[in-house]
């Protein structure tokens, strides 16, 4: 398997959200890298092969839906699970995220008690998919 199993890529343009998510993930033992635009995130994903991508949907320029479509249409990044991070108020975004190829979503504001558990569940599902165990 390519990439480190504990490396997470955060694509998030809001510095406070980015800091909170980074702190939570690092405290849980993950290695975190981040990008503040979809374009930069796609480049990092290709180079670093993270185990999971957390994708803010509302980004300047290319939004999270477009960035997910680009990741899923590229053989180098297609197998990396993408979890959308959606603002609670934006109903309908979840369906758009799943249609674009996201494996799931978490809503903002981030629930600090469950965030890392959700990330771990998606990581485990992602690795069993790659090993051909089904969903
Ligand atoms: Mn945003």
Condensed summary:
With 135 residues, this protein is α/β, with parallel strands linked by helices. The chain has helices spanning 15-27, 38-48, 64-72, 93-100, 115-130; strands at 7-11, 31-35, 52-56, 82-87, 104-108.
N-to-C series of helices and strands? EHEHEHEHEH
**Low-pLDDT runs:** none
Helix content: 40-55%
Question: Which structural category fits the helices and strands?
Answer: alpha/beta
How many beta-strand elements? 5
Distinct helical segment count = 5
Strand content: 15-25%
User: Which of globular, elongated, flat, extended, rod-shaped describes the shape?
Assistant: globular
Q: Which ligands occur here?
A: manganese (II) ion
Strand order of the largest sheet: 2-1-3-4-5
Oligomeric description of these chains = single chain
Mean pLDDT: 91
How far is the first residue's CA from the last residue's CA? 18 Å
Structure description:
With 135 residues, the protein is of the alpha/beta class. Helices cover 42% and strands 19% of the residues. The chain has five helices and five strands; from the N terminus they run E-H-E-H-E-H-E-H-E-H. Helix 2 packs parallel to helix 3. The longest helix is centred in the last third of the chain and has 16 residues, at 115-130. It starts with 6 loop residues before the first strand and ends in a 5-residue tail after the last helix. The model has no long low-confidence stretch (mean pLDDT 91). The structure holds manganese (II) ion (MN). Manganese (II) ion (MN) is lined by residues 13-14, 56, 58-59.
């Amino acid at each position: 398997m390519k990439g480190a199993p504990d490396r997470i890529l955060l694509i998030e343009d809001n510095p406070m959200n980015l800091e909170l998510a980074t702190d939570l993930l690092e405290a849980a033992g993950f290695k975190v890298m981040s990008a503040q635009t979809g374009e930069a995130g796609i480049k990092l994903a290709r180079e670093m092969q993270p185990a999971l991508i957390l994708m803010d949907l509302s980004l300047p320029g290319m939004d999270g839906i477009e960035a997910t479509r680009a990741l899923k249409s590229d053989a180098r990044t297609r197998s990396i699970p993408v979890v959308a991070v959606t603002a609670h108020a934006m109903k309908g975004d979840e369906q758009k995220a799943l249609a674009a190829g996201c494996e799931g979503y978490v809503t903002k504001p981030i629930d600090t008690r469950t965030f890392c558990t959700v990330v771990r569940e998606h990581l485990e599902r992602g690795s069993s998919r790659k090993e051909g165990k089904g969903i």
